[in-house]
Amino acid sequence: MLDGTGTQAKGKCKSPAIQLAEFEAAISGAGMTLDYRWFDVEPKGTGDACNAWNLGNAANLALAKQWTALLQQSGNKWGIYANGNQWTAMFASRSTDIGSDLPLWAVQDDHKPGVSTVHTFMGGWTSAVGKQYDLDVQVCGSGVDKDSFDS
Predict the structure, then answer these.
(1) Which of 53, 57, 61, 134 has the fewest CB atoms inside 10 Å of its own CB, making it the most exposed?
(2) Region for 17 from its dihedrals, namely left if φ exceeds 0, alpha if ψ lies in -120 to 50, beta otherwise
(3) 30-85: pLDDT as tens digits
(4) How many CB atoms lie within 10 A of CB 74?
């Protein structure tokens, strides 16, 4: 799930609670059963109308904490998808913890599969359950990312 809270004109970007409710309703309405849901914490392009992670370090942290509290209260299993190399662009430091009690799906574009090969952490995490290790690989003419997960 991508956040779309942002700083644009009031009423154009939905609150975290509304976004989460709509996301969960779409999953339920489609009859999907998911073991985990993943919340994507990474900055988007500056032209992205509701890019949440452009608020400044303190406001980004407050928003991230709001999101993680909602995710934990949702009754579903959630994890955080994030890239440690982008962390300090969003938060005050690489050690800023937004919810390290949630599982981490780490981006580490080193072309080495295996969760045990994650060696760069941020935000209080010391381990990951997933790793995105190869970005934008061409498969059958389309760009895909390669990932590894613990079983």
Answers:
(1) 57
(2) alpha
(3) 999 999 999 999 887 666 667 678 888 998 999 999 999 999 999 999 999 999 99
(4) 14
How is residue 30 written in tokens? 């489609």
Q: What distance in Å separates the CA atoms of residue 1 and residue 18, rounded to the nearest whole number?
A: 13
Within 10 A of 129 (CB to CB), how many other CB atoms are there? 18
- pTM higher than the cut 0.85: yes
What is the 3 state secondary structure string of the chain?
CECCCCCCCCCCCCCHHHHHHHHHHHHHHCCCCCCCEEEEECCCCCCCCCCHHHCCHHHHHHHHHHHHHHHHHCCCCEEEEEEHHHHHHHCCCCCCCCCCCCCEEEECCCCCCCHHHCCCCCCCCCCCCEEEEEEEEEECCEEEEEEEECC
Q: How far is CA 69 from CA 14, 26, 100, 117, 145, in A?
A: 17, 21, 12, 29, 29
